[in-house]
Design brief:
Layout (H helix, E strand, L loop, with lengths): L1 H20 L4 H79 L13 H13 L4 E4 L4 E5 H4 L9 H14 L7 E8 L8 H6 L3 H18 L7 E5 L21 E8 L22
Parallel strand pairs: 3-4
Antiparallel strand pairs: 1-2, 2-5, 3-5
Helix pairs in contact: 1-2, 3-5, 5-7
Length: about 290
């Protein structure tokens, strides 16, 4: 660049020497000046071109920096997704192992864990604390377990007063805004003690009927407490899904005499109702 800038001054210097020597015609001097102006114009154009090229280089460098930042962000996102994928895979393996364990033990398999809304989860924990002898809450499954020995008299489906109070509070929880999108499924279970009394057998011929009728009795209390019938499902499992071994000789086990109440998103369990309508309750067993 310095050499190019010196060219016009060389031409001017030569012209000056020719003039001072008195041996150069004016026409040649004018030609030298014209040549100098052309060279200066070329120099200016060259400088302008260089500036434009430098601007393009700066823009390209900025674009490369932006692309490097995008690539770095994508790599971070990929690493995060891979971490999340590993976590979900571990969770799936754990759930499958639990499912296989329960299925092998003859228990009702758990389809999946249920993540209840925080407000509902907290309310159910408080309910279990208020009735520790009657209610057990399993938050990982969204399930409230009621001990039937404290809910019903032997061979009866009449809900005891204390259990009615607890179920009324459960209905209130199910009717809160946070729980309105949850269905309520009631599953009755018995132990393996046969029904022998004629009066009891007349109402409940076997444990199938007793488990279903107790579920219906719990449903009635919840419905009386304001829970909408289309959100309720009633099931009876009889003696066939124990959570603990029964005593030999059909002597039963109090742990197996229970009613389980599941709070489940309407689109995830037992029903395929459209999103435009509430899920209908399944027909009670024994009808």
């Amino acid at each position: 660049m310095k050499t190019s800038l010196a060219i016009p001054f060389v031409v001017l210097g030569a012209a000056a020497m020719m003039l001072t020597g008195g041996c150069v015609e004016k026409s040649k001097y004018d030609e030298a000046l014209a040549a100098n102006r052309r060279m200066q114009a070329q120099l200016d154009q060259t400088m302008a071109n260089l500036q434009q090229m430098q601007a393009k280089i700066d823009a390209l460098n900025a674009d490369l920096r932006d692309r490097d930042a995008v690539i770095a962000k994508l790599k971070q996102d990929i690493a995060l997704l891979e971490t999340q994928n590993r976590a979900w895979a571990e969770k799936f393996d754990a759930l499958k192992a639990e499912y296989d364990k329960l299925a092998a033990g003859g228990q009702a398999p758990i389809l999946s864990t249920i993540a209840l809304p925080v407000q509902v989860d907290q309310a159910l924990k408080e309910l279990a604390r208020a009735y520790p002898d009657l209610i057990e809450y399993l938050p990982e499954y969204g399930m409230v377990k009621i001990k039937t020995d404290l809910t019903f008299a032997k061979g009866s489906t009449d809900v005891q007063p204390e259990a009615q109070k607890a179920l009324a509070k459960l209905a209130e929880i199910c009717n809160t805004d946070a729980a309105l999108k949850l269905n309520v499924y009631i599953a009755g279970h018995t132990d393996d003690i046969p029904i022998r009394k004629p009066d009891t057998r007349a109402k409940h011929p076997d444990n199938w009927f007793l488990s279903a009728h107790r579920s219906i009795a719990v449903k009635d209390v919840l419905e009386k407490g304001g829970l909408s019938a289309p959100r309720i499902g009633v099931l009876g499992f009889g003696e066939y899904h124990p959570v603990a071994p029964n005593a030999p000789g059909n002597k039963g086990n109090a742990l197996n005499r229970r009613v389980e109440i599941w709070l489940v998103p309407a689109n995830r369990f037992l029903t395929a109702a459209s999103s435009a309508t509430a899920a209908p309750a399944p027909a009670p067993a024994g009808d």
